[in-house]
Design brief:
Number of domains: 2
Helix content: 40-55%
Structural class: alpha/beta
Order of helices and strands: HHHEEHEEHEHEEHEHEHEEEEHH
Radius of gyration: 28 Å
CATH class of the largest domain: Alpha Beta
Distance between the termini: 50 Å
Length: 303
């Protein structure tokens, strides 16, 4: 016997009206009548008396109603306890520990988590899609229409962090024409070539860079296969510009042949951040992912 049949029966028994019950549970009256009939056949007895004015519980129905309600209540209690027990399995979390959001993490004894390291060519979005990470702090790619469609198609949810933006930096060889400038403006990027880490990042990050610099600026992009942050730090960018997160900016600033900038038009170079997860992991209100994200968002809003 399926739990949804019991829930249908209890709903109809309390309303004693098939039509109203069907509307409330978003089904058709004929479909609900068929389900009630199938339950009666399974039990081997009728549960309702049919009259010209409608239906009402008979003696068998009144007896069965109390047991059906107890079964439903026990089922939902079991579901809740099952999901609470899942807290023993830590959430796999990807987050830059320098993000300034560590204080927003819930207590480990309530919702345990463990940090996951990703390589320079392992995008957090792909790790979420592949199921190797449960929750990640990443760039809010949903701001870009094409990438928002990707999120919808792949079942990824973005939860924007209103007060959180990832800092970026700009690096170029000192032989680059722009390196002689004390400060950069958006117009300086017109026609420039931007280096992207790898093919794994190319589509998303090129669109993110265009978003930051502005759609009115024509940019060119090329891929340079960096396999590690060491590659980034030691690279010869030739006549191109490198724009990325701040992880390697201090090391690059120590190079005598590289110019590093943190401002454009006098403003910090940033990209909005978001918490991301799989939609299927968040849809269940009892899941640890859902509870983790709700607690994190509430705490981060107060920072």
């Amino acid at each position: 016997m399926k739990i949804d049949l019991l829930e249908d029966f209890v709903h109809v028994a309390k309303r004693q009206n098939i039509t109203k019950s069907a509307a409330e549970i978003h089904t058709s009256q004929p479909a609900l009548s068929v389900r009630i009939s199938s339950l009666e056949k399974e039990l081997g007895c009728e549960l309702f008396t049919r009259t010209n004015s409608g239906i009402e519980l008979n003696e068998s129905g009144r007896v069965f109603l109390s047991y059906a309600q107890k079964i439903i209540d026990l089922y939902h209690e079991g579901v809740q306890k099952c999901y609470k027990a899942r807290k023993l399995n830590p959430i796999r979390l990807y987050m830059d520990v320098n993000s300034g959001l560590l204080d927003a993490l819930p207590p480990q004894n309530e919702i345990p988590y463990r940090f996951i390291e990703l390589g320079i060519n392992e995008p957090a979005v792909d790790a979420i899609i592949q199921g190797t990470v449960d929750v990640a702090l990443d760039s809010n790619y949903s701001l870009i229409p094409e990438l928002n469609k990707e999120a919808i198609d792949t079942g990824i949810l973005y939860f924007p962090l209103a007060n959180q933006k990832a800092s970026c930096f700009i690096a170029m060889m000192k032989t680059h024409p722009l390196a002689s400038k004390a400060a950069l403006s958006h117009a300086d990027f017109q026609g420039q070539t931007i280096v992207i880490n790898s093919g794994a990042h190319f589509d998303r990050w090129s669109k993110a860079v265009q978003y930051m610099i502005g759609d009115d600026i024509k940019l060119n992009f090329k891929m340079n296969q960096f396999l590690s942050y060491t590659d980034v730090i030691l690279a010869d960018y030739e006549d191109a510009i490198y724009i990325c997160g701040s992880s390697a900016s201090d090391a690059l600033a120590r190079r005598t042949d590289v110019a590093v900038y943190h401002l454009v038009n006098g403003e910090p170079i940033t990209f909005p951040s978001a918490l991301i997860c799989r939609e299927q992991d968040y849809k269940n209100p009892y899941s640890t992912v859902c509870l983790f994200i709700q607690r994190f968002l509430k705490a981060s809003d107060n920072k």
